[in-house]
Design a protein that fits this description.
The chain is mainly beta. The chain contains two helices and 16 strands.
Amino acid sequence: MTTTFSSITRQGAYEPFELQVARGQIQGHSVIRVFGYNPDVDTAEESVWPDGGVVPHPSAASVLKISSTSANDAAAGTGARTVFIAGVNGGYNIVSETVTLNGQTAVNTVNEYLYVNEFYVVTVGSGGSNAGGVNAGTGVVTAGVPAVLYDEIATGYNQRTTAHYCVPAGYTGYMTEGIFTAGQASGSTSVTGFLKQHGPDGILRVSAVVAINNGSVQYDFGPPLAIPEKNCVGATVLGSANNNAVSAFFNIILIKNGP
């Protein structure tokens, strides 16, 4: 039987490598897209995520408390009803689950989490999106906000906007590109962005630095930046003045270790 070029093309043999990975055609490979947004960066260093301050780097995994700032984010509410959360546990193994919300009252996760890698709304009521900020964290919960915040779904977003990712055990991440953007009220101020990587030793090492003034900076890693198993990468930023809106985005190809 003669195999035609068109049939080979339909099978993906001549498609770009990245597209084949995205389509799940290469065993042990997957695409990780990490996006973060911080609407109000001031002169102290902050993570690129909806909350002020920086993403915590805990020494032990914990059961997380999932809650919302709105009573409408609940099992029968008009906002978010259930959320999916995934990350790594104390052994850096992948754990995940779906949690039914109960408004400002915290619901405990079944699994323990060291870091959160995914956090998004699964089902909603008539409002179509989360009515409040949906939070995952530890400690005392006040008005739907835990004392120590691990991650957040900002109001109306249905998806985490946190520029932080931790590579699970048994995998290596290869970052191919990243983008920082910043907008400032004054054209005379600037924002400095950092791409930082750390392993179980907790030492934050800078992998890239960008300076932005009302614009964007893209960096391409060729060859890709390798992020070993049990290492995390995240974007932080600080402004030379207050009130900066900042976003960060990066692509990672996650490859399972071994033959």
